[in-house]
Amino acid sequence: MKILVVGSGGREHAIIWKLSQSEKKPELYCAPGNGGISQLATCVPIKAMDKEGICNFALENKIDMVMVAPDDPLSIGMVDYLEEHGVRAFGPYQAAAKIEASKVFSKSLMKKYGIPTAEYETFSDSKSALEYIRRDAQTFPAVIKADGLALGKGVIIAANLEEAEAAIIDMMENSKFGASGSNVVIEEFMTGPEVTVLAFTDGKVLCPMPSSQDHKRAFDNDEGLNTGGMGAFSPSKNYTPDIAYTCMKTIFRPTIDALRSEGIKYKGVIYFGLMLTPSGPRVVEYNSRFGDPETQCILPRLETDLVDIFDAVIDERLEEIDIKWKKEAACCVVMASGGYPVSYKSGYPISGLEEAAAEGTIVFHAGTRIEDGKFCNSGGRVLGITAMGENVDEAAKNAYKGVVKISWQDMFYRKDIGKK
Ligand code: AMP
Ligand code: GLY
DSSP readout, 219-273? Predict the structure, then answer.
């Protein structure tokens, strides 16, 4: 069997790593992939957004399944397009991927179906958004979100009126996030620990994966700019069985049912970004895919064959699969290029990869390429070093045993992953 994974980051490496362990011994392809991925899969130079290119490659090479991992190809309907051309594909359809691609859509879905989330208003012109934020009753901080995809950067937590006005003007008048910011959502600021729960769903059955937590800021103690994620661990100690039960009853099931009531079948992985507020768990955001770096600490805990799960989701028979997870915890530490997330230099040779693997860690590549037979950094986030352990503390200690073996010029990483 031949499987093509679309994407090129640490998440895609983790997916391919897990698929490579399948009893079905799939022949793996990745478009476009990266240096590390090329050790497990044939990388093909087709861009992740190139629907036609991906589809033609799949048809010409008799690919049995295309797994679309990133949000942007999902949001332009890559899965719909592949299916229309007779290619089996894993991932939500365009209508379902809107749950991530449009905050206006996801917020109104939650409001209509009583799914707990922050109170909000939506605006399509800056004048009414500014009027609203200037009202006497407005409290700060206020949360201002661009409607569309903005690489996780379209959310501004405004501490006061000045910051809020600047954010609205940047998004709506200066198009700082392009078309993504032509509509904005202004919402209530929530407090509490954040937890991620990913789930497999075939549109009817919903199987949550173990909980995880991401570290979004660049530096230790949550300082510095927001990034794509500097590390993650699983499980989260804040996510107790009671909370899991409440989430299933008030958020997870109702979300899939709400979509179905709207005539939208959701098949694939759904990402619930949750905040455990004093008044109970509430949704911060939905994503229509595996999270990154969360996936790099979730999939190493999966015992069940991932090919079987993907097949069952596509065929809408997920109830047949008993998905099993390892008891051990996992932790993933991201190693990044100096200057990330603003600007960084690439092309530096990376040393110590084999030594890190000899420590028992799994080295996932997010932004590497091979030059003269050596791995070099080629992106902002470069590697994700994952290890298992009896608990998160042990897993983190084990991950750092690998991290300290690796270096390249100007690299950095957080030293407090797993300490939340
Ligand atoms: P999002 O892209 O919607 O996940 O937002 C990015 C981050 O902003 C979240 O992970 C939270 O840390 C924070 N955030 C978003 N919405 C809220 C909110 N309503 N209250 C407090 N923090 C928020
Ligand atoms: N780790 C957050 C995301 O994947 O969007």
Answer: EGGGEEEE-S-SEEEES-TT--HHHHHHHIIIIIHHHHHHHHHTT----EEEEEE
For ligand 2, whether the C-beta of 291 sits within 6 Å is: yes
In tens, the pLDDT along 190-230 reads: 999 999 999 999 999 999 999 999 999 999 999 998 898 99
Closest ligand to 194 CA?
A: 1
- Beta carbon of 71 within 6 Å of any ligand 2 atom: no
> Which DSSP helix (H) or strand (E) runs through 298?
helix 294-298
Cβ-in-10-Å burial (0-12, 13-18, 19+) of 140 comes to: middle
- List the residue whose alpha carbon is closest to atom 3 of ligand 2: 291
Q: What is the value of pTM for the model shown? A: 0.95
Residues 40-74: tens digit of each pLDDT: 999 999 999 999 999 999 999 999 999 999 999 99
Structure token pair of residue 411:
């690299």
Does the beta carbon of 384 lie inside 6 Å of ligand 2? Answer: no
Residue 369: both structure tokens together: 């390429």
